[in-house]
Amino acid sequence: MDIRHLQYFMEVVRLGSFTRAAEALFITQPTISKTIRALEEELGAALFNRVGRSIELTDAGRVIEQQAQNIVKSFESLSSQLDDLRNLKSGHLRIGLPPMIGSRFFPRIIGQFHQLYPNVTIQLFEDGGKKVENDVVSGALDIGVAVLPVSDQVLEYFSFREEKLNLLVPVMHPLAGRQQVELIELAEDSFIIFREDFTLHGRIIDSCIRAGFQPKIIYESSQWDLISEMVSAGLGIALLPETICAQINQQKLHIVPDVQPAIPWQLGMIWHRERYLSFAAREWLRFTREQMQK
């Protein structure tokens, strides 16, 4: 058994598929299947139950998963620390970004970071804030961007943007033309909101409930531009951050800037406080904090 066997095993567990794990590792499926089979033969136990196209861990597999997580993390930490000692100033970063955030804040910063550290590669993962937060906790991501506050106590963060949600309504909506609206006035409207894996999903629902009503949700999406287009088409209303609203064509809809009570939207860069941070990760945090403060 070597560390590669455990890394392949953990990737299969994470993705729930031999095919997807092979694609993520840039190897063939027969290679990963052969590696897992060799690991099972060496341990003398089946690690996966294969039911049709789906797989699940056996009891032995769950035991190996618990131990393999610690072994792989320790190996990756050792490799990172040795790289730092050699002062290679190279590495690989896995960064999670909610889709509506990445295009607005990070292309310029990523470009400037690449100029400083051309040997550091960056892999971006676009997911909702909740999944980004969970993946940073699990170690699947090195760094993430999430809506604050974060729920897990093992996460460190710094805030780089704070604003509030605006209301989007169709041009023929009774509230079109208003500059302020009370949240309770939306009780009879149909809502178009982000999917459940986005932090704003729960935040909007909770705010409506505190205001005295359960919002009627007709559609959920991961794309802010699709949400705004659906509002323009008269299908419902939406609540989006100020930064996003500034990019929306307002010819077909109206934006109410002042919603009371206000729903805050605070963005932060997050990382695991107990996990070793590589040179690349430390430099990314230092550089982005500096750039965001400007």
TrEMBL record:
Gene expressing this chain: cidR
Protein name: CidABC operon transcriptional activator CidR
Keyword 4Fe-4S tagged: no
InterPro entries per the UniProt record, alphabetical: HTH-type_LysR_regulators, LysR_HTH_N, LysR_subst-bd, WH-like_DNA-bd_sf, WH_DNA-bd_sf
Key words, A-Z: DNA-binding, Transcription, Transcription regulation
Claim: Transcription regulation is one of the keywords in the record: yes
Similarity comment text for this entry: Belongs to the LysR transcriptional regulatory family.
UniProt-listed Gene3D superfamilies: 3.40.190.290, Winged helix-like DNA-binding domain superfamily/Winged helix DNA-binding domain (1.10.10.10)
Residue ranges constituting the HTH lysR-type domain according to the UniProt record: 1-58
NCBIfam families xref list: trans_act_CidR
One Pfam entry name: HTH_1
Organism from which the protein derives: Paenibacillus wenxiniae
